[in-house]
Automatic annotation (TrEMBL):
Protein name: Ferritin
Binding site for Fe cation: E57, E92, H95, E141, Q176
Class in the EC hierarchy, top level: oxidoreductase
A single GO BP: iron ion transport
Organism: Psorophora albipes
Length: 210
């Protein structure tokens, strides 16, 4: 089972790596249009911040894939937690793709091919239980929210790019705040359910609340 989970994670990692190669290749196809003209003025610091955020979103996807696989191991067998983290990974991947589409819509490459480095170093510490997993996810989301705020600051500040700032504020921060609230609620409920009997409380939460 451990082997199949390991190979499953490796297969997903390879799929994401091939995505990064495809996007880098796609970026190379973006040449100068004949008759060279300028139609957008999105400034470099804002583009760099956007590309960094795309990296962050895919890195968050890898973190949640790892967590989803961890909770699915037969000795842990918390399928509710596993599904929750696999779903979170799919959402992060979707966020990354939406930002790539945004960059392309503004006439920029989908990624910065020189700095698109995915981070596979995350490991779930041994004996992590469901509550610790949710707390790790909340920490990760706080970090992502901070990072989005950083992009907004760069883009609405010196770069005066109100459109991207508005997109991130209206769509991304909205989802971040709702997601963080949901995680905080789950942690509180699980914590209470574990009071009398930690394992039974976690099992019931896994089957009914997540
Ligand atoms: Fe995200």
């Amino acid at each position: 089972m451990m082997k199949s989970i390991f190979f499953g994670v490796v297969a997903i990692a390879v799929a994401i790596m091939s995505l990064s190669q495809d996007t880098a290749h796609a970026q190379e196809q973006t040449g100068t249009v004949e008759g060279d003209y300028k139609w957008d003025n999105i400034e470099d610091p804002c583009v760099t911040a956007l590309h960094n955020q795309i990296n962050e979103e895919f890195n968050a996807a890898i973190t949640y894939l790892t967590m989803g696989a961890y909770f699915r191991q037969e000795k842990i067998n918390l399928l509710g937690f596993s599904d929750f983290f696999f779903k979170a990974a799919a959402e992060e991947r979707e966020h990354g793709i939406k930002l790539m589409e945004y960059a392309l819509m503004r006439g920029k490459g989908p990624v910065d091919k020189n700095n698109f480095n995915l981070d596979y170093s995350f490991k779930v510490p041994a004996d992590t239980d469901g509550e610790a997993g949710l707390r790790m996810a909340l920490q990760k989301e706080e970090k992502v929210t901070k990072s989005i705020r950083g992009v907004i600051k760069v883009c609405e500040g010196g770069s005066n790019d109100y459109h991207l700032a508005d997109y991130l504020t209206g769509e991304y921060l909205e989802e971040q705040h709702k997601g963080q609230r949901e995680l905080a609620e789950k942690i509180a409920t699980l914590h209470k359910m574990k009071k009398e009997s930690p394992h039974l409380g976690e099992y019931l939460f896994d089957r009914t609340h997540i």
